[in-house]
Amino acid sequence: MNEYNRADFNGVYKGNSLIESAEITNVPWEIGEPQPIVCTILDGMHPGRLLDVGCGLGRNAKAASDRGYEVVAIDIASAAIEMCRELYPDAGISFQVLDATESGLKPGFDVILDSAAYHAIPEPKRLAYLREMHRLASENTAFHLITFAPSVYGMPKPLASELSEIASTVEFSGWKIKLAERMEYNGNSAAIEDFREKKGLNIRLDDRGRTRLPVWHLVLQMAI
Q1: Domain tally, the chain
Q2: What is the CATH number of the domain that holds 8?
Q3: Using 50, 70 and 90 to split pLDDT, how confident is the model at 81?
Q4: Domain coverage including residue 119
Q5: CB 3.0-4.6 Å disulfide test: which of 5, 160, 164, 203 passes with 1?
Q6: What is the reported pTM?
Q7: Distance CA 8, CA 157 (A)
């Protein structure tokens, strides 16, 4: 099992290092606001019942709620969920500590949002994850999956996945790919400064100093 599969997602919210080989003690995906790519996705759909997988500090969940979505937001990190409940006590969002590979939630979501959760799930569990999302979906569910794409300006493998690798797992889980496009995901550049140096990464920044990480944006639909 590689070090990314052993990442301490709960600990990083408490100031511990996310991984063993580099000092990452601030949350790399926390930018203090919802992801721009997620806002674009939300604005392109009619509001419905939405599941936010790996919600972090709830920025995307709050953006969805503000747009009229009924939101259930889950994360395996209990520290993150505690902070979500403190940040948004009156937002009407159901924040829950759950494992996305066996959530126990009831089916019936119109939208499933995975904003950079897929690559955080250990590779051996990704098929189980997609099958669990399939269980929670209906024939009309739109599953938006955002995950790191290989690039000279991006994250290293195995954090970044080739589209063919993802497609194979998707196929065996009962989903099909309706749309696949390359986009950018913003992150906290200061949080990964030591990681970038030690891994020799050439990650670009935007005009606000946030990382510009190449990602796949996949839209999945039920195949069976």
Answers
A1: 1
A2: 3.40.50.150
A3: very high
A4: 3-222
A5: 5
A6: 0.97
A7: 18
